[in-house]
Amino acid sequence: MVELVDVMKTYGEPGGAGAVSVLKGITLTIEPGRSVVMVGPSGCGKSTLLNIIGGLDHPTGGRVLLDGRDLAGLDDEELARIRRRAIGFVFQLHHLLPQCTVLENVLIPTLAARDGSTQDEVRARARILLARVGLEDRMSYRPGELSGGQRQRVAVARALINRPKLLLADEPTGSLDESTSRSIAELLAELNRDEGVTLVVVTHSRDLASRIGQVLELSGGVLHERGRS
Ligand SMILES: Nc1ncnc2c1ncn2[C@@H]1O[C@H](COP(=O)(O)OP(=O)(O)O)[C@@H](O)[C@H]1O
Ligand SMILES: [Mg+2]
Predict the structure, then answer these.
(1) Is residue 167 a contact partner of residue 88, using CB atoms and an 8 Å limit?
(2) Residue-range domains of the chain with CATH
(3) What is the model's pLDDT at position 229?
(4) Distance, CA 121 to ligand 1 centroid (Å)?
(5) How far, in Å, is the centroid of ligand 2 from the Cα of 46?
């Protein structure tokens, strides 16, 4: 599913005074259907690595393969298509559109990437996903009328609407209280188990980490395996 080969990332002019080497050779294979959690101190490069896996950022060295395709060999349009079709993103801040309803927010990724499904089919899928995340009775609410945990559930449903094979989540529980975090953690673990979506999560939450198969620690620009639960 995901293969990283000696991935490096330096911000600023390489060799220049302001250059910061964040990733110093990351090699990692994530098989389809697996779940991986990345932990590490703030500023160690977790978001950078996740964005590189998702094609939102380019490495300054090494290779990133998604389903065997080297992302460096794709033009912007092909990369955008893969991002829309194959990858779902969940961020710490949900980035929902405040003026749209819950249902409309979930449908947004389908506007650019219709895969042959009809409008009715994608709406039906959005309803199923919203029920799946426990929001069947909130579909016509606006984000401002929801709790933080509910908004993050909408963001999870939105990330899954195009049936991505890969779900990337960057501190998805970072702005939530403990019990809400736990329920989002459970939801992500269930989606990985039941829907087979490959999951890569960056988190500070021990609870989230403990529910996900493989824990990798990023420090000093390299990954260390912390074992499986
Ligand atoms: N666009 C950028 N330009 C320069 N430095 C950056 C940029 N983005 C991130 N960094 C630096 O890279 C390091 C890793 O950042 P980040 O990946 O956001 O870490 P984390 O997600 O682990 O907190 C930090 O030192 C940060 O300041
Ligand atoms: Mg980060």
Answers:
(1) yes
(2) 2-228 (3.40.50.300)
(3) 45
(4) 40
(5) 5
